[in-house]
Amino acid sequence: EDLCADILKLMAEINPKIIITHSCCDQHTDHKSVANVVNSAIELLFHLLKDECKLQYLMAFPPIRLGLDSLKSFTPMILCDVTDYCKTKESAVLIHSSQIPYIELNLKKHLALSRFYGTLISSEYAEGYSYKHFNDDVSMEYILRIL
């Protein structure tokens, strides 16, 4: 409840157009909890701000620990070129190697999937996101432009 209130307060202050968070299908319990709390805060945000709310999209990214179960439960709706950021993300993920068993293997799987997604949009690396939009006048071009 405290985390939801903190997130709601921050969202009300910033009034973002887009929020990017974890997927509800993530295997990590903390990540699932964050996704659920963010979703709850968004519902409250719309209830409290009504017409003043600028939020148009909630984007979710897949879990870093990839397995057949997570690939079945997460279907990307949009692919974003992340080639310029791939090495930085890899370094950031490896910082947690003492906390996550088999992180190198999971990172290799994630990079392989990013390379595959990249081929679909003619880039070296891409990441997939699912999204929920709160405006009927949406297009993929507009989403990519505000990202």
Walk me through what this model shows:
The chain is α+β, with helices and mostly antiparallel strands and 147 residues long. Helices cover 50% and strands 15% of the residues. The protein contains six helices and four strands. Strands 1-2-4-3 form a four-stranded mixed sheet. Helix 4 packs antiparallel against helix 5. The longest helix is centred in the first third of the chain and has 21 residues. The two termini are 29 Å apart. The mean pLDDT is 79.
Write a brief caption for the model.
The protein is α+β, with helices and mostly antiparallel strands and 147 residues long. The chain has helices spanning 2-14, 29-49, 68-73, 86-94, 103-120, 140-146; strands at 18-22, 57-61, 78-81, 126-133.
Helix-strand blueprint:
Layout: H1 2-14, E1 18-22, H2 29-49, E2 57-61, H3 68-73, E3 78-81, H4 86-94, H5 103-120, E4 126-133, H6 140-146
Parallel strand pairs: 1-2
Antiparallel strand pairs: 2-4, 3-4
Helix pairs in contact: 1-2, 4-5
Distance between the termini: 29 Å
Please report which band the strand proportion falls in: under 5%, 5-15%, 15-25%, 25-35%, 35-45% or over 45%.
5-15%
Radius of gyration: 16 Å
**Total number of strands:** 4
Order of helices and strands: HEHEHEHHEH
Mean pLDDT reading: 79
Q: What coarse outline follows from CA principal-axis ratios? A: globular
Question: Count of helices?
Answer: 6
Contiguous runs where pLDDT drops below 50 for at least 5 residues: none
Tell me the structural class: alpha+beta
Strand order of the largest sheet: 1-2-4-3
Please outline the major beta sheet.
Answer: 4 strands, mixed
Report the helical percentage: 40-55%
